[in-house]
Write a structure and sequence with these properties.
This protein is an alpha+beta fold. The chain has a domain of 127 residues. Helices cover 44% and strands 14% of the residues. The protein contains 16 helices and twelve strands. Strands 7-6-9-10-12 form a five-stranded mixed sheet, with no helix packed on it. A hairpin with a 2-residue loop joins strand 6 and strand 7. The longest helix has 25 residues.
Amino acid sequence: MTRPVSTAYLRAFAPSRFTSAASALLLTVLSGCVSVNQQHADEAVGDYFLGDYARAEQLIQPAAKETNENFVLNNDRLGSAALAAYDLDTAEAAFLRSYEVINSVGVNDGGRSLGAVLVSENIKVWKGEPFDRAMVNFYLGLIYYIRHDYANARGAFENALFKLRDYGEGGDKADQYRAVESNFALAYLMLARSYQRLGRPDLAEKNFGRVRELRPDLAPLADEALNDNSSLLLVVDYGHGPQKATAFDGSIVGFTPSPAEAGPIPLPMVVLDGAAQELGGVNRPPVDMLALAQDRRWESIDTIRTVKSALGTGLIAAGIGDVALRRRPDPALSLGLIGGGLLLKATSQADPRQWEMLPRTTFVLPLRVPPGTHDVTVEFPGYLGLRQMWHGLFVPQTGEATYYMRMDRYNPGPFTWPPPSMAQASSR
C-alpha cells in the first residue's frame, strides 16, 4: 500500500531551513509499502517535532517491538520521544535494545550473537551512521546521569567514544580503515563530569583536557571547578540533525544541509526566577551534528559506497559526452570513463532510512544556583518563540539535578515539574 504523507510531519518541517534536496528526500522516505505499525512510526516523527512527545511515543511503540530491518531505527525514535516526554524507563529500554543490536557481531553478514537473536538473519538491519550510534550511547549515558547512576553513565559515555574508521583511498583499499581517535567533545565532557561524581578527579581532568584540546573555544565549559560546583545541569537539544541527500538515480550523495547552509548555531540564554544568568561562555555548542556528517570518518562504509554511485553516474555521463560531443572521440577514454562509472555504481546501494529526531547540537549548561524549586527558562534571543519554560525545577541541598529539554517552536511550555510521566512512574 502507499504510505500517506503525514500533514503533521510536513507542518513540523515547514519552517525549517532544509534544502530542496532534503525536502525531496522526506517525500521519498514517506513513500512505498509498509506495515500499519511502521506507517504509524513514520507519522509519529511529525508529532515529535510538533512537541506531542506522548503521542509520538504511543505511535512508535508497536513498531519498535517488530524484529525487522527497522528494529534499531524505531527503537532510536522511541527513545527520543520517550526521553523528551520524561518517560525514562521506556527511553532506557529502547536505547538499550538499539545498542544491543548495533553492537552485535554479524547482524548483516550471517554471523549471530546474543544481542541480535531476535532479528532475522535474512534482512538488512539499519544501524545508522557512526554519529547515530554515538548518540544512542550518549542518550543512554544521559538517562543514567539524570538518575545519578554515574557508574553506568560513565560506561555509556565511553561507548560513545568508540574508535572511528578512517577509510583508505581508491581501488582495493576502499573497505580498509585504520582506527582514529574520536573527536566527539560532547561525550568527553559528560565522561569527565561522570568521573568527578565518581570521585576520580584525575580521570576527570584527563577528559576535560581532551575537550579543551579538541575545542579550545570550550575551555570555559570544560573548567573543572565550574563543573564540580554545579548544582543544576541543563542538557538542551537544539535544531535538526543531518538529512541524507539523494541524486536523481536514488543514490546518496551526502548529507544536507552543511553548516554553512544552515548558518551558525545560536547561543542560548538561561533565565532563573526572572533573572538572566551570566553564563560566561559555557553556552557554546559542544558538537555540530551537521559538521560531523560532512566528516567522512563519521560515515558508515555503506554510505561511502552509495556516494560512489553518484561519482559513477558522473563518469558514465562524461564517457557518453565524449562520444556524442567530440568530433573525434577517443574510444579508449570513453570506454574507460563508462567502465569506471559502472564499476562504482555496481558497489552502491542507497538506504535512505535515518533517525530524524537527532538535534543539530546538544548544549550542556552547568549552573550554581541555591537549593529549592526554581522557574527556569531557556531561550534563544533573536529567534522569536524559541524558548521553553519550566516551573518548579528542584535543586537539592547537595549534589546536582540534571534536566533535559528538547527545544522546538511548537513546545514552549510552560511546564510544571514533575511532568505527568514522572508522576505516574513514581506512583507505580
